[in-house]
Amino acid sequence: MLTINLERLKESIRALSKIGYNEADHGVYRWGFTDADMEARHWLLDQVKSEGFKAHMDGAGNVFFGIGDYHKKPAVLTGSHLDTVPAGGIFDGALGVLAGLEVLRTIKANDVPLNHPVWVVATAEEEGRFGGMMGSQAITGSLNMDWLMSAHDADDVYLKDAMAVHGLDVMNVLDAAWPPERLKAFYELHIEQGPVLFNEDICIGAVEGISGVFKWIVHLKGKADHAGTAPMNMRSDAFMGLADFAHEIERIIAEDGTDKTRITVGKVDLKPGSPHTVPGEAVFTIVGRDMSSEVMKELADSCRKALSAIARKHRLMFEYEQVSWLDPQACSNRLTQIIENKAKARNLSCLRMPSGAGHDTQFFANLTEAGLIFIPSVNGVSHAPDEWSRWHDVEAGTHVLLDCILESAS
Asked: Is residue 383 a known part of a binding site?
């Protein structure tokens, strides 16, 4: 069995982690299409070109690099994303890209014969600043121009404008789509972002399917008023509406959800935002997840009904925009079995499991056979500065990724 160079992989992860790093909270800030995000993409391009790999960036901001010509023969593609949530960690997404780079280095160093090209992709805007997983959606032909022109983040920055700042034209995004015949298989290595593998001391997760997710931006509009003179029973307090909805989440899940259901209010903006003013408007996000499309529809309907009733109670106007809706997606049974087999061959413990978080794999699964490999997150932490995965787990996951790619490409 081939062996990757763990110290070389560590150095790549550490080098990338410095881009967007914040000394104050120790988080990484590479929100999609920000300066730091684009700096990371150009850093990666320079790095892989200096090592002799073919590389380019497409019109959606996806960075590709690899061995062989995917125009002549279907490629085995691996990768993940480079962007992070604000104050994110150093492994989420980046691990899959840099482990892919280490796989290429290992193949090249050992002069491994391949029947199919092997390429790595660092997808753009996976973390959903603008509502979806734009990079993988572009590659798999899952976007349309109406969405691209109207997509915006929670601060009303439009995708087309954010891309233009960095010399990218949203009109070129649709040209990034790959035809199905260009791909043989897709593998993604990712940290679990949950506690299951870590708590059960299991090294590898072979993911069977990925949760669906919907994202809303909600507006509850009331009337701003003086915090000292407005009687409590005469207020149209938008914050009280938000607080009431937060208390409804547990009931909604109990009545319409499953043990896989997640509903999160993650971003809140109260206007006008003065300590001495009753909030006249609450703008907040709702993100719902489940493994069933039908359950997701019931959850969304229940959220809508609850917010309508709360708005009437507090004399508020309720509006919402559905920014994105991603259905649950099964992974390839064949590739999942290959992942299990390769883990077993390395004497690594392995668990078949679902993913509660969304990943690029769920879009590639519509285009080709797709497999998703998890390694443990220490204490299940992710999307936070203290996100960490142990180096021996990083090494094990990269070895399994290498073995899977060689099986599919040889």
From this structure: yes
Tens-digit pLDDT profile for residues 151-191? 999 899 999 999 999 999 999 999 999 999 999 999 999 99
Burial category of 286 from C-beta neighbours within 10 Å (exposed 0-12, middle 13-18, buried 19 and up): buried
H-run or E-run covering 373? strand 370-375
CATH 3.40.630.10 range(s) for the chain read 6-211+328-409
Helices (H), 18-75: 35-50
Q: Are 214 and 324 in contact (CB under 8 A)?
A: yes
What is the chain's Cα-based Rg? 22
Cite the residue boundaries of each domain of the chain with CATH code 3.30.70.360: 212-326
* pLDDT of residue 132 exceeding 90: no
Could you tell me which residues come within 8 angstroms of residue 271 by beta carbon, excluding any fewer than 6 positions away? 224, 238, 279, 280, 281, 282, 283
Residue 56, strand partner residues = 64
Q: Is 81 annotated as a binding residue?
A: yes
Query: Which tokens go with 130?
Result: 């603008």
pLDDT in tens, 349-375: 999 999 988 899 999 999 999 999 999
Gap between the Cα atoms of 99 and 121, Å rounded: 11
Phi, psi (rounded to 5 degrees) for 166: -105, 20
The pLDDT score that the predictor gives to residue 358 is 86
Query: What is the per-residue pLDDT across 96-124, written as a single tens digit (0 to 9) for each?
Result: 999 999 999 999 999 999 999 999 999 99
Give the span between the Cα atoms of 326 and 132, in whole angstroms.
8
Q: How far apart are CA 313 and CA 315, in angstroms?
A: 6
Overall fold of domain 6-211+328-409: Aminopeptidase (3.40.630)
* Mean pLDDT for all residues in the chain: 97
Asked whether residue 247 is marked as a ligand-binding residue, the answer is no
The greatest distance separating any two alpha carbons of the chain, rounded to the nearest whole angstrom, comes to 78
Candidates 57, 113, 104, 117; CA nearest to 82 is 57
Spatial distance between the Cα atoms of 406 and 127, rounded to a whole number of angstroms: 29
Q: Which helix (H) or strand (E) holds 135?
A: helix 134-139
CATH topology for 212-326 is Alpha-Beta Plaits (3.30.70)
SS3 label, residue 326: strand
Residue 369 known to bind ligand: no
